[in-house]
Design a protein that fits this description.
two-stranded antiparallel sheet; alpha+beta; Glutaredoxin; de novo design (two linked rop proteins); 13 helices; 4-stranded mixed sheet
Length: 342
């Protein structure tokens, strides 16, 4: 039982960080709505002049209206997907201005002023409302946000992005600090003659496949979300969909990061298997290889974790959980690798 105590403490502290933020997240209330308009539409101009400014003044930062010009290619594409998503076929329901909030599809300068304020009130009372579930919507939203921020300096941009979700991003930064410290410690302990901390003797190597399976499950789920363009179920922390739909969700714009994670966790499982059951001459090399895989995984996860709060402006609970998993795997792999190098 003593061998499991350090690991249980690590998991308890990590779980506590995620659970502690849940009540605080309830205080960050944002209601998202989507407005489709045309620059030549007089009704759109009327809505923008007489209705929306009053609502924006009333709700302030709690109300975010994402605008799409249906004359543009991107706006037209999203609008067509909205019509399909809400199964709009009546000619009287097709046109602008159109506002989507949650599952409500509002059209015209009569229905929108009549129903939109009440829907906002209901959403605020429930603690906020995310963007509608439309394929490609998040990507366009991120593009719009980044274009508007081009005038900011690098540090102003990072500060602005962090403030988009300070609670979840604070957790990401905390995990990032732990990962960087773990990387430094792993390199120093393994590659130098420094005395090995006694706590490493109590980290059971048999936990590695369990952790790898957990990480693999996360990677499989996020890969499904990425490939199918469905929405991730994130829970109380952060915004997984914003991260998944960012330009950084694919390596070199081709390979989805979660798919890369799947390969990484499978490689860790294979390395652990050969370390435990492979021929004796191979075990020494595999111990070093497993440590190397863990080093690379933590290094790459650190890069991704930095992007979330400071570049994307949103943190993904699944991504952070995966980062914690590879960090624990790194700590468990240190002692066997050090012995193999001696």
């Amino acid at each position: 039982m003593k061998r499991w105590i350090p690991l249980l403490l690590i998991l308890a502290v990590t779980s506590g960080a995620f659970l502690a933020v849940k009540p605080a997240m309830a205080r960050t209330t944002i209601v998202y709505a989507v407005l489709f308009y045309s620059p030549t539409c007089s009704h759109c101009a009327e809505l923008d002049r007489e209705v929306l400014p009053t609502l924006q003044e009333k709700y302030g930062n709690k109300l975010v209206i994402v605008r799409f010009n249906v004359v543009s290619a991107a706006g037209s594409e999203i609008y067509e997907k909205a019509l399909d998503r809400f199964k709009v076929s009546e000619k009287s329901r097709i046109g602008v201005p159109t506002i989507i909030i949650g599952d409500a599809f509002l059209v015209g300068t009569v229905e929108i002023p009549e129903k939109f304020p009440g829907l906002i009130d209901a959403a605020v009372a429930r603690g906020g409302l995310d963007l509608p579930d439309l394929p490609g919507l998040y990507k366009q939203f991120v593009k719009q946000s980044n274009i508007q921020l081009k005038h900011l300096s690098k540090w102003q941009f990072m500060a602005y992005k962090f403030q988009q979700d300070p609670l979840a991003n604070s957790i990401a930064v905390s995990i990032l600090v732990i990962m960087i410290a773990s990387l430094i410690a792993a390199l120093v302990i393994t590659l130098s003659s420094v005395k090995t901390p006694q706590v490493l003797n109590f980290l059971p190597s048999r936990i590695i496949p369990i952790l790898a399976v957990i990480g693999l499950a996360i990677a499989v789920y996020l890969s499904y979300v990425e490939v199918s363009e469905t929405r991730a179920v994130c829970g109380p922390v952060g915004n997984c969909n914003a991260v998944q739909n960012s330009p950084y969700a694919k390596l070199f714009g081709i390979l989805p990061i979660p798919v890369m994670g799947m390969f990484g966790y499978v490689a860790i499982l294979v390395a652990w298997f050969f370390r435990q059951f492979g021929p004796a001459p191979l075990k020494r090399l595999v111990r070093i290889a497993l440590w190397g895989l863990a080093i690379f995984s933590v290094l790459f996860s650190s890069y991704l974790t930095f992007l979330e709060p400071f570049v994307i402006g949103a943190s993904c609970a699944f991504c952070l959980a995966s980062a914690v998993v590879v960090t624990i795997i790194l700590w468990v792999s240190i002692l066997p690798a050090k012995k193999a190098l001696q």
